[in-house]
């Protein structure tokens, strides 16, 4: 599989050869000349006369005459498709362009350019980002693998771990060059190599490639969520432009945080300048954000009905540009976005709220506004049906919304008045509202993603930042957003130049290295100053403070004050722009229409206040102060001035640049090959322009001429002293002096290095050569160590064989001695008499006594151990008893407090009952008095009416009139008394209100306790979920290890089978060896017998010879003849026996040789077997040890997780019970509070009516009766509280009784344990006595035995 990846990353060296014969290539004198279409074309120089050169084009064979200054040399064919353009022998624009184009046509899109990487957008899918590619680049050096963005990511990761410094990867380039895709690949690689749970790279590659494919994963681990963050941001922040179908319309800086071990523990995302104006208008052939089209083309019936969706062509805001993208299914992307949101932890309700806001933004554009037919410029809304839909989605009132749009309140002096709005003002207000709503939605999504990803940021040690920001843009109409984007790219290019050129050369001068400063002419500070410090943005902010300022006045100021700046260009005669700025990438014309409004970002305060109080909690959250920190319209300083969009963006950019300056940057320069989005096509002028702007040639030159690799003295000495150990003298040596000695000993070229004040500097490639030499040296040392170890083991094994052979000889000698000894009569007598001796029995008895003594000692130790355990248990029980006593005391205190509370509540209840009775009595008296007064009043009124009637016809009776007046005065006095009584009732009402407030305070305290318990419960639930996820991962790992164990067992069984076969062969050889040994022994015995017979024959021969000599001297001739005959016979017999002995010796020699060969073969086989066994056993032992270690670790983790899970579940159950109790109490309290609040409201209303209708006595009685009813309800509530308190007292008493019962049970168990302890102590005493008795008996037996042995000796 690796070969399949390499096929798209590297080509064989043979295919680079354009000419087989280098002499033929040199004879052609090839060179490059400029061409308008191809950039440069290859030609052969035919003649070189002065300042003109005649060439023949290689493609058309056309003769061309050009200036000598335009001719650029060509590189030899072996440098075709070179991976690092710093290796080119001839460096010029033509060679760089040709190498990039040649590699691009071969699908080799990545190329090194000195210290950074260049990537050309392929506009097609190339299989170089799968799991095999990740494995290929993991932990590899840059020179060992082909160019790739994975190599840059791995280099930054290893640099972070080695140097413990923050790193950053900057993907820069024009729009459509592939910055976003390369950013995603970097995140994919880091998520694979630094995941907290080591996962198969294929899975992570699937996550990355299917990041928006709607997988069935739930809320998962961190690296999965990290990969799913990009699809969500692309949905709501990317759009289709002329150059790019998935252009990022915002900038983002992703920080991936790592712990000390290099594992990912979190991430944060910072965003910059969302192009929110795109959601209300787009250029021709462009789209708005992807989210709008995904919702309209992927929504099902539920979404359509709930979000009030319509056909896409009916929306005014999104139907201006091109609504279709080739090869993009918006419906499928909609489902993938929802699934990614679920993986990030969003609920279905939150997802629906997000899409609801998107639908509302689209509907705002459909609000039709027109001017009144009569009466001037007042704007009106033709049809409020759209407003009703918008207000339904946003949760606000329709009338308030339309009033805020058409006639908003403004402050005029100290008063607020309604201001009439024109049609243009209302259109601007609704567009501003749509843009601000979408911007706040986008910020909420970013914040929600960060909340999921930044769980363990506090434990982070280092981070790798990945910057993906909008590239340099030159459109037909360039506005305020393009100025900010181009200003950002100007700052990033300045950082690149500073790192690659300025800081590099400053480092040389700081280290006192002989270096001639090179000016590459890439200082971008004048352009930055024109925009930032003294120029366009400050003037724009100043104009925003003047009420009567316009866009034209701003342009006039810019031209007047900055017209002399060389970087500011005035528009041409027919150019439709206000001014132009000369950027590093070219001249960009800008139109300043609407810049003041965009910079101030104003909003209708009436509408924003209405949205902040929305009935939809999600919409109210969007318009709260939470998202005001990064918005200009919501930020005002203390003096009343506001922070503009340009000011905020400049602050964020400065913060980003400070962060990047404190990291080690790695640059990936993205190149767009053409604007037609066609694969395999290179627009040479476009690519050349980007190469010049990006400083590619200058970077290669300084890499080749400078010293890009540097290392500190101490690190160089520590790392490479192994190459020249004799170069450094013993004792203390200065770092610089030591490095000079080492460099001299290494025989490096003097031009390839420089020694500074604190560092050693090397040219490109030298440090890599030293690393290779160090690796070779280490491998040789390791091989030597392995050889020494193997030699030591072989010598030890040979010594063991020699020792074994000597031992065999000793055993054989002893066996022969025993064979001779066993037939000796005295030995037989000794073996029969020895068992009868008493000493032998004494040894046996002594052994039995010793064994018994050991048993007694063991019993004593067990008794001591049991005693200690009992004492420890007693101590534990004592501690538990103390804790129970303390708990009982605490319960008693709580019970006492509850009794006091109960007594206070009872007394309070009695007082309230007395007050109620008194109030009821007064109420009854007032009722009766009121009835009487009403009757008298009615009677007097009737009499007064009669008198008035009589006055018209007759004279009035003055006495009667005076009497009636007196009666009226009496009635007035009674009414005054009634008023005084009402005042007393008012005082009582205030007193009851005070008591009600106290009750409310108690209720608020209970609610606070409940919220605290709910927070603890949520925390435990989240911890339980995390533990469950980790447990599932551990189980999956255990399953994988079990599978590995099965495969290992299978291999082990195969090895055992081979081992058994070898053992069978060994047994066969051993049996043959035994047979031969037996035969050798038999032959040796026969040889010994023959030798004995020969010796006896020789002895007999000598004896007979002596007798013969005697007989010869004494006997006659006949006897001598007989003796001669006997002598001959004996001589023949002796010769025959000698011949037999010789044959037996020959046969024995052959057998010995065969035995020796078998022994050699046997020893070789045994050695081979032992080596095989040892190797197999070592491998098996290593694998088993490793697997056991992993299993033990996993088992420990699993056990810990189980304990945590069980503990968490127990705590969860406990909290659930407490939550249930609290919920019940809260419900009761809420019901009581509801009743109280209703009663208080009614009471307040009734009191107001009493004040208003004081003169109406009839309503006074009715209000008094209502007040009495409310007091009765209050008494019922207090009675319920009293019952609750009594229940709590009862439960506390029950708890106390349970605690007492538990204490009694513990005391009983303690008594039982004390009895057991007493029994154990008695058993211990008996064991000690028994031990003493046994020791005494043993001593007596020993004394007796010793005395008997002494007597026997005597």
Automatic annotation (TrEMBL):
<dbReference type="GO" id="GO:0016459">
    <property type="term" value="C:myosin complex"/>
</dbReference>
<dbReference type="GO" id="GO:0007015">
    <property type="term" value="P:actin filament organization"/>
</dbReference>
<keyword id="KW-0067">ATP-binding</keyword>
<dbReference type="GO" id="GO:0005524">
    <property type="term" value="F:ATP binding"/>
</dbReference>
<dbReference type="GO" id="GO:0005516">
    <property type="term" value="F:calmodulin binding"/>
</dbReference>
<dbReference type="GO" id="GO:0005737">
    <property type="term" value="C:cytoplasm"/>
</dbReference>
<keyword id="KW-0009">Actin-binding</keyword>
<feature type="region of interest" description="Actin-binding">
    <location>
        <begin position="653"/>
        <end position="675"/>
    </location>
</feature>
<dbReference type="InterPro" id="IPR008989">
    <property type="entry name" value="Myosin_S1_N"/>
</dbReference>
<protein>
    <submittedName>
        <fullName>Myosin</fullName>
    </submittedName>
</protein>
<dbReference type="InterPro" id="IPR002928">
    <property type="entry name" value="Myosin_tail"/>
</dbReference>
<keyword id="KW-0175">Coiled coil</keyword>
<dbReference type="InterPro" id="IPR027417">
    <property type="entry name" value="P-loop_NTPase"/>
</dbReference>
<feature type="domain" description="Myosin N-terminal SH3-like">
    <location>
        <begin position="26"/>
        <end position="76"/>
    </location>
</feature>
<dbReference type="InterPro" id="IPR036961">
    <property type="entry name" value="Kinesin_motor_dom_sf"/>
</dbReference>
<dbReference type="InterPro" id="IPR004009">
    <property type="entry name" value="SH3_Myosin"/>
</dbReference>
<keyword id="KW-0112">Calmodulin-binding</keyword>
<feature type="domain" description="Myosin motor">
    <location>
        <begin position="80"/>
        <end position="775"/>
    </location>
</feature>
<keyword id="KW-0505">Motor protein</keyword>
<dbReference type="InterPro" id="IPR001609">
    <property type="entry name" value="Myosin_head_motor_dom-like"/>
</dbReference>
<keyword id="KW-0547">Nucleotide-binding</keyword>
<dbReference type="Pfam" id="PF00063">
    <property type="entry name" value="Myosin_head"/>
</dbReference>
<dbReference type="GO" id="GO:0051015">
    <property type="term" value="F:actin filament binding"/>
</dbReference>
<dbReference type="Pfam" id="PF01576">
    <property type="entry name" value="Myosin_tail_1"/>
</dbReference>
<dbReference type="Pfam" id="PF00612">
    <property type="entry name" value="IQ"/>
</dbReference>
<dbReference type="GO" id="GO:0016020">
    <property type="term" value="C:membrane"/>
</dbReference>
<keyword id="KW-0518">Myosin</keyword>
<feature type="binding site">
    <location>
        <begin position="173"/>
        <end position="180"/>
    </location>
    <ligand>
        <name>ATP</name>
    </ligand>
</feature>
<dbReference type="Pfam" id="PF02736">
    <property type="entry name" value="Myosin_N"/>
</dbReference>
<feature type="region of interest" description="Disordered">
    <location>
        <begin position="1281"/>
        <end position="1307"/>
    </location>
</feature>
<dbReference type="InterPro" id="IPR000048">
    <property type="entry name" value="IQ_motif_EF-hand-BS"/>
</dbReference>
<dbReference type="GO" id="GO:0000146">
    <property type="term" value="F:microfilament motor activity"/>
</dbReference>
<comment type="similarity">
    <text>Belongs to the TRAFAC class myosin-kinesin ATPase superfamily. Myosin family.</text>
</comment>
């Amino acid at each position: 599989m690796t070969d399949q990846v390499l096929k798209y990353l590297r080509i064989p060296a043979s295919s680079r050869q354009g000419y087989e014969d280098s002499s033929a290539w040199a004879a052609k004198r090839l060179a490059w000349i400029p061409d308008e279409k191809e950039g440069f074309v290859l030609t052969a120089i035919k003649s070189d006369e002065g300042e003109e050169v005649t060439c023949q084009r290689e493609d058309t064979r056309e003769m061309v005459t050009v200036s000598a200054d335009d001719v650029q040399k060509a590189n030899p064919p072996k440098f075709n498709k070179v991976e690092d353009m710093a290796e080119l022998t001839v460096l010029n624009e033509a060679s760089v362009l040709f190498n990039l184009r040649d590699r691009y046509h071969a699908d080799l899109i990545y190329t090194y350019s000195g210290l950074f990487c260049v990537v050309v957008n392929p506009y097609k899918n190339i299989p170089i980002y799968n799991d095999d590619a990740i494995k290929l680049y993991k932990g590899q050096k840059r020179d060992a693998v082909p160019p790739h963005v994975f190599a840059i990511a791995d280099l930054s990761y290893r640099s972070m771990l080695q140097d413990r410094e923050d790193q950053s990867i900057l993907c820069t380039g024009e729009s459509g060059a592939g910055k976003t895709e390369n950013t995603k690949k970097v995140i994919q690689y880091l998520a694979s190599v630094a995941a907290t749970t080591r996962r198969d790279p294929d899975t992570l590659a699937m996550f990355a490639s299917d990041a928006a494919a709607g997988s069935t994963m739930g809320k998962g681990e961190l690296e999965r969520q990290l990969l799913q963050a990009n699809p969500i941001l692309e949905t709501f922040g990317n759009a289709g432009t002329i150059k790019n179908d998935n252009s990022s319309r915002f900038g983002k800086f992703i920080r991936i945080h790592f712990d000390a071990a290099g594992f990912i523990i979190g991430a944060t995302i910072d965003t910059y300048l969302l192009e929110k104006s795109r959601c209300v208008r787009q250029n021709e052939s462009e789209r708005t954000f992807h989210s709008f089209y995904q919702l309209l083309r992927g929504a099902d019936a539920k979404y359509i009905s709930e979000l009030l969706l319509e056909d896409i062509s009916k929306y005014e805001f999104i139907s201006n540009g091109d609504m279709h993208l080739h090869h993009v299914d918006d419906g499928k992307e909609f489902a993938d976005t929802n699934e990614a949101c679920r993986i990030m932890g969003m609920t279905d309700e939150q997802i629906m709220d997000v899409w609801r806001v998107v639908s509302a933004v689209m509907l705002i554009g459909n609000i039709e506004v027109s001017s009144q037919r009569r009466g001037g410029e007042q704007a009106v809304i033709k049809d409020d049906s759209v407003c009703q839909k918008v207000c339904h989605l946003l949760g606000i009132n329709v009338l308030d919304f339309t009033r805020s749009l058409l006639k908003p309140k403004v402050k005029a002096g100290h008063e607020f008045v309604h201001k009439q709005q024109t049609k243009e003002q209302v259109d601007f207000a609704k567009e501003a509202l749509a843009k601000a709503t979408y911007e706040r939605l986008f910020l909420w999504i970013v914040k929600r993603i960060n909340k999921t990803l930044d769980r363990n940021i506090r434990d982070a040690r280092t981070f790798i930042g990945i910057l993906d920001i909008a590239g340099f843009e030159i459109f037909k109409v360039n506005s305020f957003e393009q100025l900010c984007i181009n200003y950002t790219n100007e700052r990033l290019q300045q950082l690149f130049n500073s790192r690659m050129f300025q800081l590099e050369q400053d480092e040389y001068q700081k280290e006192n290295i002989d270096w001639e400063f090179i000016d590459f002419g890439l200082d971008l500070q004048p352009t930055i100053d024109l925009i930032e410090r003294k120029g366009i943005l400050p003037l724009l902010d100043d104009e925003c403070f003047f009420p009567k300022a316009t866009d034209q006045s701003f342009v006039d100021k810019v031209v007047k004050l900055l017209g002399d700046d060389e970087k500011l260009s005035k528009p041409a005669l027919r150019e439709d722009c206000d001014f132009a700025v000369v950027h590093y990438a070219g001249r960009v014309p800008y139109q300043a229409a609407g810049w003041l409004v965009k910079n101030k970002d104003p909003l209708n305060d009436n509408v924003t206040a209405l949205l902040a109080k929305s009935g939809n909690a999600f919409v109210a959250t969007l318009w709260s102060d939470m998202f005001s920190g990064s918005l200009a319209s919501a930020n005002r300083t203390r003096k009343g001035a506001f922070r503009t969009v340009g000011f905020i963006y400049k602050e964020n950019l400065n913060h980003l640049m400070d962060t990047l300056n404190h990291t080690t940057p790695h640059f990936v320069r993205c190149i767009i090959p053409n604007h037609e989005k066609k694969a395999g096509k290179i627009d040479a002028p476009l690519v050349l322009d980007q190469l010049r702007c990006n400083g590619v040639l200058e970077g290669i030159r300084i890499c080749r001429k400078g010293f890009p690799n540097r290392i500190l003295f101490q690190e160089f000495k520590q790392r490479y002293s192994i190459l020249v150990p004799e170069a450094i003298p013993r004792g203390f040596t200065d770092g610089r002096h030591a490095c000079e000695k080492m460099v001299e000993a290494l025989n490096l070229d003097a031009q390839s290095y420089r020694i500074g004040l604190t560092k050693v500097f090397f040219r490109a490639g030298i440090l890599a050569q030293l690393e290779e030499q160090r690796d070779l040296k280490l491998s040789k040392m390791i091989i030597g160590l392995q050889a020494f170890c193997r030699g030591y083991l072989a010598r030890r094994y040979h010594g063991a064989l020699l020792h074994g052979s000597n031992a065999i000889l000793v055993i054989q000698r002893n066996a022969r001695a025993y064979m001779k000894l066993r037939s000796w009569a005295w030995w037989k007598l000794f073996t029969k008499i020895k068992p009868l001796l008493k000493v032998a029995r004494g040894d046996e008895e002594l052994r039995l006594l010793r064994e018994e003594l050991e048993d007694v000692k063991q019993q004593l130790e067990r008794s001591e151990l049991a005693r200690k355990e009992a004492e420890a248990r007693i101590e534990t029980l004592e501690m538990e008893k103390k804790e129970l006593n303390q708990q009982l005391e605490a319960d008693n205190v709580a019970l006492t407090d509850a009794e006091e509370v109960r007594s206070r509540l009872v007394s309070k209840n009695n007082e309230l009952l007395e007050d109620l009775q008194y109030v009821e009595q007064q109420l009854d008296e007032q009722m009766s008095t009121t009835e009487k007064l009403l009757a008298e009043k009615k009677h007097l009124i009737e009499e007064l009416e009669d008198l008035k009637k009589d006055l018209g016809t007759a004279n009035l009776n003055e006495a009667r009139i005076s009497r009636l007046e007196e009666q009226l005065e009496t009635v007035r006095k009674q009414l005054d008394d009634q008023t005084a009584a009402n005042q007393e009732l008012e005082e009582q009402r205030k007193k009851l209100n005070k008591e009600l407030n106290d009750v409310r305070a108690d209720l608020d305290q209970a609610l606070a306790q409940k919220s605290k318990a709910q927070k603890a419960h949520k925390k435990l639930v989240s911890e339980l979920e995390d533990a469950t996820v980790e447990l599932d991962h551990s189980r999956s790992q255990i399953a994988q290890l079990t599978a590995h164990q099965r495969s290992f067992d299978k291999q082990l069984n195969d090895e055992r089978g081979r081992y058994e076969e070898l053992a069978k062969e060994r047994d066969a050889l051993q049996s043959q060896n035994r047979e031969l040994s037996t035969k050798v022994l038999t032959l040796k015995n026969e040889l010994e017998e023959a030798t004995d017979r020969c010796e006896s024959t020789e002895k007999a021969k000598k004896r007979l010879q002596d007798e013969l000599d005697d007989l010869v001297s004494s006997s006659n001739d006949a006897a001598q003849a007989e003796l001669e005959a006997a002598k001959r016979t004996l001589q023949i017999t002796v010769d025959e026996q000698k011949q037999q002995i010789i044959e037996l010796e020959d046969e024995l020699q052959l057998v010995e040789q065969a035995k020796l060969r078998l022994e050699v073969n046997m020893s070789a086989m045994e050695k081979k077997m032992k080596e095989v066994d040892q190797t197999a056993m070592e491998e098996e032992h290593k694998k088993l040890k490793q697997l056991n270690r992993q299993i033990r670790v996993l088992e420990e983790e699993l056990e810990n997780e189980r304990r945590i899970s069980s503990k968490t579940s127990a705590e969860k159950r406990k909290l659930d019970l407490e939550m249930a109790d609290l919920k019940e109490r809260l419900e009761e309290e809420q019901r009581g509070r509801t009743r109280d609040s209703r009663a208080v409201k009614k009471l307040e209303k009734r009191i107001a009516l009493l004040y208003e209708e004081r003169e109406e006595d009839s309503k006074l009685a009715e209000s008094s009766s209502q007040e009495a009813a409310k007091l009765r309800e209050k008494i019922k509530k207090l009675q319920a509280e009293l019952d609750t308190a009594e229940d709590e007292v009862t439960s506390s008493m029950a708890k106390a009784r349970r605690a007492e019962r538990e204490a009694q049970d513990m005391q009983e168990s303690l008594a039982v344990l004390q009895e057991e302890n007493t029994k154990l102590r008695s058993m211990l005493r008996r064991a000690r006595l028994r031990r003493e008795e046994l020791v005494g008996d043993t001593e007596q037996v020993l004394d007796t035995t010793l005395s008997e042995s002494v007597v026997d000796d005597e």
